[in-house]
Structures are given as structure tokens and as C-alpha cells.
UniProtKB/TrEMBL annotation:
Organism: Paenibacillus monticola
A Pfam family this chain is assigned to: Methyltr_RsmB-F
Residues noted as binding S-adenosyl-L-methionine in the record, renumbered to the chain: 111-117, 135, 180
Record's keyword terms, sorted: Cytoplasm, Methyltransferase, RNA-binding, S-adenosyl-L-methionine, Transferase
Keyword S-adenosyl-L-methionine among record annotations: yes
One example GO MF annotation: RNA methyltransferase activity
InterPro entries attached to this UniProt entry: Methyltr_RsmF_N, MeTrfase_RsmB-F_NOP2_cat, MeTrfase_RsmB-F_NOP2_dom, Nol1_Nop2_Fmu_2, RCMT, RsmB/NOL1/NOP2-like_CS, RsmF_methylt_CI, SAM-dependent_MTases_sf
Domain SAM-dependent MTase RsmB/NOP-type: 24-296
Active-site residues, as the UniProt record annotates them: 233
Keyword Transferase attached: yes
Gene Ontology BP, a term: RNA methylation
Protein name as it appears in the record: rRNA cytosine-C5-methyltransferase
Length: 506
């Protein structure tokens, strides 16, 4: 066996699988499968297949997922930097396919970092509705926020909160919730030897307790009639069927929507028909468990709020449920700095008197000038100031009062010396037709890579696409084979590179 597995783990798997154990054990001799998932916010699966420089083979349970061949490095291609695909373990693409997300839904991804499943949900939302992506661990929310920016997501809020705080702030609010639970990770042993090193016989029980708490919070945040998908990448029954069975015993308004037993999905164990497993000896992918739970629609009980909760639910959230605010108003977010130096925000309903902050009027005027000149249309949503950074949020900001907010929405830019500087995520989320000025660089002659390395490029006027009535000088949406990747500034035949240092090709 290539991977040295703990003996108490192998004994448990023998007891679980009986005669199937040998096949299971043999699967550890195989190389793990690699995959990419097409980011349909930017490109269709058909178009990516036509463009793809590497062989792609469909993944049966995900219509936008493809296996990549061994040895291929999809992260080392300009299309990755243009956000055309997410590199994702094939089995990890299954849970979101079961969540049934529709454009316009309100979706909560409770354990979201680094954002694989959040970016998949965002693609299904197609920019409509709301995605709240949360992770408990502050460090991990950095990668989560960056991934949502790379993939051009416009309608996501990134939080760094405990699930019970989210449930208190959004009681019975979300149509769909994904819990991709922290787990003992046994299903990833073949792919990630660190998971094997961290595993102890007590690990599953420790995670099962955590999973129970997360499920309870999710139940309080789910709207009547809503759908909840619970997934893990482990084999332990106590973290899978066990966790779900215990939850159902305490929450009779939920039932399992069957997914198991057909296609690639194998049935779960015990008294829980309808839950599903992906086994590494049965499918081309790592081990996963999934359960789809549906709320029966019983109206949520009216609970007298604690005084603390009254503060949190300043009624704009109710407005959002019924009807969006008629006219967006700008809200300032007060910046707080955590021990690690990370900037995060807790929203406040008043206007900060901090002199370092630009005034709301100045920021909005500069933003208005920029979008008139550069886009010619106005992004929909609620403008939110976060220090001197402007975001367009899918939620009225009062909804985030008291919550540790990493990104209140789509980052569109910031103010420097009274001028509006567009953000990188504004560019990555734009289609070339949405910008008055754009330029496409080719992957075939090295110029796309030169741009991604931060180099200045000589670009003659005739290569630019400039909307009638606009001038070529100024911010240029730089695309790679027609797909937006970042900004440049064009003047007199030269393109000054605005691709951010932290994102560059190395
Ligand atoms: C399996 S990973 C999630 C992977 C992610 N869904 C994706 O597709 O990229 C589980 C995540 O749960 C987070 N986590 C751990 N305990 C948590 C809790 N109590 N509430 C929310 N998130 C938690 C971890 O930081 C970790 O990022």
C-alpha cells in the first residue's frame, strides 16, 4: 500500500466493508484523480472544451466538471488566472450538485474556505440572489475571499463567524444551506498524507460533536421548506449517517431526500436510506458522504428575541425578505483590526467620524464618475464603504450588523487622493462588453503570460476595442483570449500593467 494507514482505521474499514475491503485497500495504490470545474460565470463548458489546451473527460456527477490527465498542471495556464476553471477534487464537486441552487436563491455556505463549493454555488446563482460564504477560521477566509474574486463573483458576502451567530442574525432566512463539515478527512488519505498523520482513533468522535452543533445552527438559519446539504470527506459512520440520524431525531420537520443507490452514488449505511457515498474503489474520485435534508415547510416558531438579538435584527433584514430597499443608501463599515493585522469589519448604522475615512459623498461621486466613463452602466446593489474601499453588497448593510465581515460584497474600488481606483475584482467579474475599453491578449504568443507577470506591453491603438463615444486613453479591461483578467492603463501605444503584485505569474 502506497499510503501507510493507521491500523485502527483499517480494522474499522474491514468491519464496515467485509469482502469489499480488498478492493477498497487496492484503491490506495492508484494515483488520485485530478479535476477542473468550469466557471460558468465566465465561460460555458462547451467553449472551454473548445479552448482547452489539455484533455478533459466528463465527471459523471457534475455537468461542468472534468477529469484532467495525470501530470497536467492546470494552475500553470493563463486560463486559470482568467478564472475560467477551478481546480477541484472530482468527488468534492458532488455536494453542490445535490443542493439544487437556482438563480435568485439565498444560499449559505457555512464551512466555505477555501471556496471550491462556494464558487460552484456562485456559478449556479449566475449573479442573481445571494451567497453568504462563511468560515470559522480567520486565516482560511483570505483564500476564500481571493477565490471568489478570481472567479468573478459579484453577489457574495464573506463572513468569519460561528454558525450560531449567523443563525441569530439570519433566522429562517436561507433557501439553501451547504454544510461541507469539518471532519476527520479519512476520504482524503490517498490524496493528502497530512490527514493520515493528524488522524487518531478519537478524531471522528471529536468532529461528530462539532458537526452536531453546526447542523443545529444551520436548522435555525434555514427558511421553512428549504434544503440543506450535509457533506464530509470521511468514512466514519459517526460523522456521517450517525450525525444525520441524531439530527433527524431532534428535528422531525426535516427528512432525507433520497440521492443514493443510483448512478455513481452508493447507498449510505444503516437505517438511513437515501444518503449517499462516493467510494474510491467504486468511482474515479476520493471518499465523500452526502445527505440532502428538506424542511417540511412548517412555519418557524415565533421566538421572543433576547435583548441582544433585537439589536442584531434592526428590521432592514425583514425589508430584504419582503421587498428590497427602494433606493440604495451607502453604509459605512467601521474598520477593526484583529490581532493578526487582518482588516475586517463590523457594520455600524451611524457615520464614522474617523478623519482617515473619506466622506461618503466624495466616494460616491468619484465612483459615479468612474462607472459613467468606464462602464456606462451601474452595478446593482447596496454601496458600502469599508474604510476608503467601496463594495456593492447584495444585502442592505444593516443585515450584517455585529457580524465579522471579511467582504460585505463585490469590491469595486477605493479612493486615492479623491480619485476612484478600480479594484482587481471589478475587472475579473466584467464581461468585455460591459467595459467601454477592452483589449484581448493571446495565450499563443506569450503576451498573456507577460501581462500576468506584470510587464508593460506595447499595444497599438488598432488592437483596442473602444465603445463609440469613448476615448482609448485610460483604464483598459485586459482579457486573455477574450476573458477578463485584470486592468491595464493605455496611453500612446503603451499598456501600463495594473495586474496586482500578489496575483502575478511566478
Ligand atoms: C471541508 S473544509 C471546507 C471546504 C470548502 N467547502 C471548499 O469546498 O473549499 C471545512 C471547513 O470548515 C471550517 N470550520 C471548522 N469548524 C467550523 C465551524 N464550527 N463553523 C464553520 N466552519 C468551520 C474549516 O476552517 C474548514 O475550512
Amino acid at each position: 500500500m502506497a499510503v501507510q494507514l493507521p491500523s485502527s482505521f483499517t480494522q474499522r474499514m474491514k468491519d464496515l466493508l467485509g469482502t469489499e475491503y480488498k478492493q477498497f485497500a487496492d484503491s490506495y495504490l492508484e494515483t488520485p484523480y485530478g479535476g477542473i470545474r468550469v466557471n460558468t460565470l465566465k465561460i460555458t463548458a462547451e467553449s472551454l472544451l473548445a479552448l482547452s489546451p489539455f484533455q478533459l473527460e466528463p465527471i459523471p456527477w457534475c455537468p461542468t466538471g472534468y477529469y484532467t490527465e495525470e501530470g497536467v498542471r492546470p494552475g500553470k495556464h493563463p486560463y486559470y488566472h482568467a478564472g475560467l476553471y477551478y481546480i477541484q477534487e472530482p468527488s468534492a464537486m458532488a455536494p453542490v450538485e445535490l443542493l439544487g441552487v437556482q438563480p435568485g436563491d439565498r444560499v449559505l455556505d457555512l464551512c466555505a474556505a477555501p471556496g471550491g463549493k462556494s464558487s460552484q454555488i456562485a456559478a449556479k446563482l449566475q449573479g442573481q440572489g445571494l451567497l453568504v460564504s462563511n468560515d470559522l477560521h480567520p486565516e482560511r477566509t483570505k483564500a476564500l475571499a481571493k477565490n471568489l474574486e478570481l472567479y468573478g463573483v459579484r453577489n457574495a458576502v464573506v463572513l468569519n463567524e460561528s454558525p450560531d451567530h449567523i443563525a441569530a442574525a439570519f433566522p429562517h432566512f436561507f433557501d439553501r444551506i451547504l454544510i461541507d463539515a469539518p471532519c476527520s478527512g479519512e476520504g482524503m488519505f490517498r490524496k493528502d498524507e497530512d490527514m493520515v498523520k493528524q488522524w487518531e482513533p478519537e478524531t471522528p468522535a471529536k468532529y461528530a460533536a462539532m458537526q452536531r452543533d453546526i447542523l443545529r445552527s444551520a436548522a435555525s438559519a434555514l427558511a421553512p421548506g428549504g434544503t440543506l446539504v450535509y457533506s464530509t470527506c470521511t468514512f466514519a459512520i459517526e460523522e456521517n449517517e450517525g450525525t444525520i440520524a441524531e439530527f433527524l431525531a431532534g428535528y422531525p420537520q426535516f427528512s432525507v431526500v433520497p440521492v443514493g443507490g443510483t448512478g455513481s452514488f452508493a447507498m449510505g449505511f444503516g437505517e438511513l436510506p437515501g444518503t449517499a457515498r462516493l467510494w474510491p474503489h467504486k468511482v474515479k474520485g476520493e471518499g465523500h458522504f452526502m445527505a440532502v435534508l428538506r424542511h417540511d415547510g412548517t412555519p418557524a416558531p415565533i421566538v421572543e428575541p433576547e435583548p441582544e438579538e433585537i439589536l442584531l435584527s434592526i428590521s432592514t433584514r425583514k425589508n430584504f425578505k419582503g421587498k428590497p430597499a427602494a433606493k440604495p443608501t451607502v453604509t459605512r463599515v467601521e474598520e477593526v483590526r484583529s490581532k493578526g493585522g487582518r482588516a475586517s469589519g463590523k457594520t455600524t448604522s451611524g457615520t464614522s467620524r474617523d478623519l482617515q475615512h473619506v466622506s461618503v459623498e466624495v466616494a460616491l461621486a468619484a465612483y459615479g464618475d468612474f462607472i459613467n466613463e468606464q462602464l456606462g452602466w451601474e452595478p446593482a446593489g447596496h454601496p458600502v464603504l469599508f474604510g476608503d474601499h467601496l463594495y456593492i453588497s447584495p444585502l442592505p448593510q444593516e443585515s450584517l450588523n455585529g457580524l465579522r465581515t471579511i467582504r460585505p460584497g463585490w469590491s469595486v474600488g477605493h479612493l486615492r487622493n479623491g480619485r476612484f481606483i478600480p479594484s482587481h475584482p471589478l475587472a475579473t467579474a466584467l464581461h468585455p462588453s460591459e467595459s467601454c475599453r477592452s483589449l484581448s491578449l493571446s495565450t499563443s504568443n506569450g503576451e498573456a503570460v507577460s501581462y500576468l507577470k506584470g510587464e508593460t506591453l506595447a499595444i497599438p491603438l488598432e488592437r483596442l476595442s473602444v465603445r463609440p463615444g469613448s476615448t482609448p486613453k485610460g483604464y483598459m479591461l485586459v482579457c486573455i483570449d477574450g476573458y477578463s483578467a485584470g486592468w491595464g492603463k493605455w496611453q500612446d501605444g503603451m499598456l501600463k500593467n495594473e495586474y496586482p503584485a500578489g496575483w502575478r505569474w511566478t
